[in-house]
From TrEMBL:
<dbReference type="InterPro" id="IPR000673">
    <property type="entry name" value="Sig_transdc_resp-reg_Me-estase"/>
</dbReference>
<dbReference type="GO" id="GO:0008983">
    <property type="term" value="F:protein-glutamate O-methyltransferase activity"/>
</dbReference>
<dbReference type="GO" id="GO:0006935">
    <property type="term" value="P:chemotaxis"/>
</dbReference>
<dbReference type="InterPro" id="IPR050903">
    <property type="entry name" value="Bact_Chemotaxis_MeTrfase"/>
</dbReference>
<dbReference type="InterPro" id="IPR036097">
    <property type="entry name" value="HisK_dim/P_sf"/>
</dbReference>
<keyword id="KW-0949">S-adenosyl-L-methionine</keyword>
<keyword id="KW-0175">Coiled coil</keyword>
<dbReference type="InterPro" id="IPR036804">
    <property type="entry name" value="CheR_N_sf"/>
</dbReference>
<dbReference type="InterPro" id="IPR003594">
    <property type="entry name" value="HATPase_dom"/>
</dbReference>
<dbReference type="InterPro" id="IPR000780">
    <property type="entry name" value="CheR_MeTrfase"/>
</dbReference>
<feature type="active site">
    <location>
        <position position="14"/>
    </location>
</feature>
<dbReference type="Pfam" id="PF01739">
    <property type="entry name" value="CheR"/>
</dbReference>
<dbReference type="Pfam" id="PF02518">
    <property type="entry name" value="HATPase_c"/>
</dbReference>
<dbReference type="Pfam" id="PF01339">
    <property type="entry name" value="CheB_methylest"/>
</dbReference>
<dbReference type="InterPro" id="IPR022641">
    <property type="entry name" value="CheR_N"/>
</dbReference>
<keyword id="KW-0489">Methyltransferase</keyword>
<feature type="coiled-coil region">
    <location>
        <begin position="637"/>
        <end position="731"/>
    </location>
</feature>
Length: 1079
């Protein structure tokens, strides 16, 4: 059984959003809500998000499918390569294939969610790159839903959250773990305040709620000030209820108290009332109509064009019209001064509009050529170019209170009036009509009720609510705030010409003033042929009623003057001569005044219009003043009686005609009603058929485009395959190494020409088993090796021989890249005949070198042995001479100089013996390298060295610390001992004068090497001398004994073994040698 979810929560995420989604659902309870995840997915890989989420939520998780009904306590994940929308609680998928440009999957779903769920929609924006979702959350906000944005500080990629925050519609900015609890509290509070049927008017509200609502509206009006009293009650009620749920407030009076003490919440409530949601070229077909039929007309009307966008929100619609205007200017190459006035009550929205910076998601709402031409892309946003921005003026404006912008060529006010009641709609329609010049255009939203406009405007498009002004009608002055005409104050009437053009007085004003003052005195008004006031002069409070007025003179006259003045006006218009009215009593019997009225017709040739000058002045009863001017003066009592009789006769005839007309209209109305029903039915059928044809045409076009794309892809693939086949054939022809390709059954697939001399192959052998074909090589394990390669996927390398040549054969698997499956094997033959010959010669030379080295070793050993014997003999003779000399003269004191000579000779002999031993060691390094090494254990070697220098260690208090991660190495034991001996003895020799020597010896395994590190705490080596310490006979200090051969030998040994040595030293701290032995 399917249940409707209480709320549907849509989560939009992109880069870095997976972790945020996990965190969100780690804290999500079972709350009868549904969750839909719109994640940007790779089109090339199947998403495993649904499976991965199972570890983070107890809710059921489904990969969304087309036609799937949304159920509570479930999570739905969008599949890759699909757009997803929601209609009547059901998910629908459409493929992205063939859709060019950025795929704003989040915006697409959020728009459908807002349309389908309204106030039950919740939109969440998590981590991601780009701006997808920023347009969608506007739609959710407009529908009365909840918008939550991840705190950018907690997002791995903050671009999507930042763009969402820039829209100004976010209700909460939270970390992912905080969102579920806030949503749960919000939904709970919302349910407590949701009536079964929301009230449509104040009469349906409970008395307590209505009084609180009025108090809230009064508070908004007095504090901000913003007046929402004429907005539809249902809209106001929903917004207040949402804000109460946002704060967890249950009682409307408590919320009123909160508004009284929290100005920020008062501003937030007002912001919720102001639905600042729009988009570029919203309703593309409507803008196409504006571009085709409206822009050319207003642009050709003159050199200056004025456009007013009322309720511009964040400016997208105003800029859209600016783009259309600029395109027309560029196309016609005309210099036209264009000003676009964009106004709104929402100052925050105006701030966004004025900056002209929009998220990159706007790319989906306009042509790429327009985007490139009029926007600058920077920081993942689009900014309006200055040349377009200077065309617009943004300003705050209250349509319900402020006067309209006048003399406009085009006014756009779309989908704003639907939130207001009927009275306010009529009031604003009147203002918009007044603001247009004759022939100007009015562009409304498709949802507006335009019944009020049909009388005075020509319908250009019924579907898109585009109208053209036919004629001027008076504007009700109580439409907006103006000074009130009060008794006792001098008032100059605003003229209809002023209201129409909002400019200076008509040029005839100065002439009329002079006539009134010099010829007549008193006061007067000037009216047109429709009796509409165009100007006024002097003190009029005596003659006109003290009330808020319109522009019709007859409505402004007191009752005693109304009928005679009407008769005088009509007579003056007919005769073209002035008409006067004798003294008429105005006012009560005690304070009344006698008034004389003169009506003078005249024509302004420059304006080509007729006007009537109506002059008033006080006079004594029965006075004949004014008759000398030549005007015809009326007997008011007689003319009034005649006028009344004529009106009664005219009324009788009119009633008879009206009765006849009414009967005809009733009959005609019945016929028209029937005919209209038939037309509506036929129109619906035609519209349905047209929609089906349009849908079919779009589908066919879409299929055709897809087929063209597929065909193009196939053509490209065929070309690639042809080129690849040519490359392979050329490769095979030029490859000197023979190659054979076989399938899983060892049947021949392909071979290179050079393999023919090894295997007797021809083109007709392709498809035959390879073991049925004779070969010219000895390769007995061929079938077994190939079978093993195919089965196990390894590589087998062997050497085989033909009659006169040697080859290395490598068998490796043939792997199909699409599914990583082994589909055969490749057999490659490398001729190594010359290599084998060179290997033989090298082996012979190595054997000869070993023999020569043995001879050299014998020579070095003999020579060093003979030299050492000779030096030992010399040393013995000198010692004997020393003893003899002392014994011959025992009583004679020892000659100090002779003793010094003996000591120097003995030291020189000792050094010479050490030199011979070291030189003999140099000659043995190469021979030791050529001989096989042995497993040498470091610990044993160090103990042997310590034993040989035990006296030196004890005398210098030296400590040797070892740590062998690798205990042994395969190396020449003699050479390794020589290296360690030299490094240890040098560490002692160059010890610090401030501390006893401490030596650390450490081994460690590295990739391809064994590291031997010898570290001491001695005197250290200057950085400039480090590079020269391995030079033969180089000594760091002349004051310290040594031959300068030890480090040279150490480096020579390690290099001969294929390794290297590094040194690191700090003066006063010590030195570290690192020896890298190649394994």
């Amino acid at each position: 059984m399917t249940h409707t979810p209480q709320h549907i929560i849509a989560i939009g995420a992109s880069a870095g959003g997976i972790e945020a989604i996990y965190t969100f659902f780690d804290h999500t309870p079972l709350d009868k809500a549904s969750y839909i995840i719109i994640q940007h997915l790779s089109p090339d890989h199947q998403s495993r998000l649904a499976q991965l989420l199972e570890k983070h939520s107890k809710l059921d998780i489904d990969l969304a499918e087309n036609g799937m009904v949304v159920e509570p306590n479930k999570i739905y994940v969008i599949p890759n390569k699909q757009f997803m929308t929601l209609q009547k609680g059901t998910l629908y998928l459409t493929s992205k294939a063939g859709k060019k440009g950025p795929h704003h999957t989040i915006n697409t779903f959020f728009h459908s969610l807002a349309k389908d769920q309204g106030g039950k929609a919740v939109g969440i924006i998590l981590s991601g790159m780009g701006s997808d979702g920023s347009e969608g959350i506007k739609a959710i906000k407009k529908a009365g839903g909840l918008v939550i944005v991840q705190d950018p500080v907690t997002a791995s990629y903050d671009s999507m959250p930042q763009h969402a925050l820039a829209t100004g519609v976010a209700d909460w900015v939270l970390a992912p773990e905080e969102m579920p609890m806030q949503i749960q509290v919000y939904v709970h509070q919302l349910q407590q305040h949701t009536p079964v049927n929301p009230p449509a008017s104040s009469s349906e509200l409970e008395e307590k709620e209505e009084s609180t609502l009025v108090a809230i509206l009064d508070l908004l009006k007095s504090k901000l000030p913003m007046d929402f009293s004429d907005y539809k009650r249902a809209t106001i009620f929903r917004r207040i209820r949402k804000r109460m749920a946002h704060h967890g407030v249950n009682d409307s009076r408590a919320y009123l108290q909160m508004l009284s003490t929290h100005p920020i919440e008062l501003q937030a409530l007002a912001q919720d009332f102001l639905i600042s949601v729009t988009s570029f070229f919203r309703d593309r077909e409507a803008f196409d109509l504006i571009e085709r039929d409206v822009i050319p007309q207003i642009m050709n009307a003159g050199e200056a064009v004025k456009i007013w966008v009322a309720g511009c929100a964040t400016g997208e619609e105003a800029y859209s019209l600016a783009i259309l205007v600029q395109e027309y200017v560029e196309k016609t190459n005309r210099q036209i001064d264009v000003k676009i006035f964009a106004t709104d009550l929402d100052k925050l929205a105006l701030a966004i509009a004025s900056k002209g910076i929009y998220p990159e998601s706007i790319a989906g709402s306009m042509l790429k050529e327009r985007l490139d031409r009029y926007f600058i892309y920077q920081n993942q946003s689009y900014r309006i170019k200055p040349e377009l921005r200077k065309m617009l003026i943004f300003a705050p404006h209250n349509l319900g209170k402020n006067p309209p912008y006048a003399n406009m060529d085009l006014i756009s006010c779309r989908n704003l009036l639907i939130y207001m009641n009927k009275d306010l709609q009529e009031k604003i329609f009147s203002m918009l009509h007044f603001g247009l010049k004759k022939g100007g255009f009015l562009f409304l939203g498709a949802s507006e009720n335009t019944t009020f406009l049909h009388t005075h405007m020509e319908e250009i498009s019924r579907k898109w609510k585009i109208y053209k002004k036919k004629a001027h009608i008076p504007l009700r002055l109580d439409t907006f705030s103006l000074p009130i005409y009060e008794d006792g104050k001098s008032v100059s009437l605003p003229s209809s010409k002023q209201a129409e053009a909002t400019t200076q007085k008509p040029p005839l004003g100065e002439v009329l003033s002079e006539i009134v003052i010099t010829e007549y005195g008193g006061a007067g008004v000037c009216v047109d042929e429709n009796l509409q006031v165009v100007d006024s002069f002097g003190e009029l409070t005596t003659y006109l009623l003290p009330k808020v007025f319109n522009f019709n003179l007859l409505d402004l006259l007191p009752e005693p003057l109304a009928l005679p003045v009407r008769a005088a006006l009509q007579r003056a218009l007919k005769s073209g001569q002035g008409v006067g009215i004798k003294s008429t009593h105005v006012g009560d019997s005690q304070e009344g005044r006698a008034v004389e009225v003169l009506v003078k017709p005249f024509t302004d040739r420059r304006l080509e219009k007729r006007f009537l000058l109506v002059l008033f002045r006080e006079t004594s009863t029965g006075s004949d003043a004014g008759k000398e001017r030549g005007e015809k003066w009326m007997d008011t009592s007689l003319q009034t009686r005649e006028y009344v009789e004529s009106l009664e006769e005219e009324l009788r005839q009119t009633k008879e005609k009206l009765h006849d007309t009414q009967e005809k209209l009733v009959a005609m109305g019945e016929n028209m009603l029937s005919f209209n029903e038939e037309l509506l039915s036929a129109n619906e059928e035609m519209q349905s058929a047209n929609e089906e044809m349009q849908s079919s045409n779009e589908e066919l076009q879409s299929v055709n485009e897809e087929l063209q794309n597929v065909n193009s892809e196939y053509q490209g693939k065929i070309k690639e395959l042809t080129e690849l086949n040519d490359d392979l054939n050329n490769y095979f022809r030029s490859n000197v190494n023979g190659q054979v390709f076989v399938d899983r059954e060892l049947k021949l697939k392909k071979f290179s020409p050079s393999v023919v001399e090894l295997i007797n192959l021809q083109e007709r052998d392709i498809g035959r088993p390879l073991d049925h074909i004779t070969t010219n090589i000895k390769f007995e394990t061929f079938r077994e090796d190939m079978t093993k390669v195919i089965a196990e996927g390894g590589i087998i390398v062997k050497e085989v021989q033909s009659a006169h040549k040697c080859y290395q054969v490598m068998a490796m698997p043939y792997i199909r890249q699409s599914d990583n499956r082994i589909d055969g094997a490749i057999l490659t033959f490398y001729e190594i005949t010359e290599l084998k010959r060179l290997q033989g010669e090298l082996q012979e030379r190595n054997t000869s070198l070993l023999r020569i080295n043995d001879d050299l070793d014998t020579f070095v050993f003999t020579a060093s042995h003979d030299l050492l014997n000779l030096i030992a003999h010399i040393q013995g003779l000198i010692e004997l001479l020393h003893i003899t000399n002392n014994s011959v003269n025992p009583d004679t004191s020892v000659n100090p100089q002779a003793e010094e000579f003996y000591r120097m000779i003995d030291t020189a002999i000792t050094k010479f013996k050490a030199l011979i031993r070291e030189l003999s060691g140099i000659g043995k390094i190469e021979s030791e390298r050529l001989r096989e090494g042995e497993d040498v254990y470091f610990e044993e070697l160090i103990e042997d060295i310590k034993l040989s220098i035990a006296t030196l260690l004890e005398a210098t208090h030296t400590q040797i610390e070892v740590a062998f991660e690798v205990p042994s190495i395969h190396f020449s034991k003699k050479n390794l001992r020589s290296m360690l001996y030299n490094l240890i003895s040098n560490a002692i020799k160059y010890k610090s004068s401030e501390r006893d020597p401490h030596i650390v010896i450490h081994t460690k395994a590295l990739p391809g090497f064994l590291l031997l590190r010898v570290e001491d705490n001695g005197m250290g080596i200057e950085q400039s001398k480090v590079a020269s310490i391995f030079t033969l006979y180089h000594r760091l200090s002349e004051q310290i004994e040594g031959q300068g051969i030890g480090l040279y030998l150490t480096q020579k040994i390690i290099h001969a073994a294929g390794g290297h040595i590094e040194v690191e030293s700090k003066v006063g701290k010590g030195t570290t040698f690192r020896l890298f032995f190649k394994l």
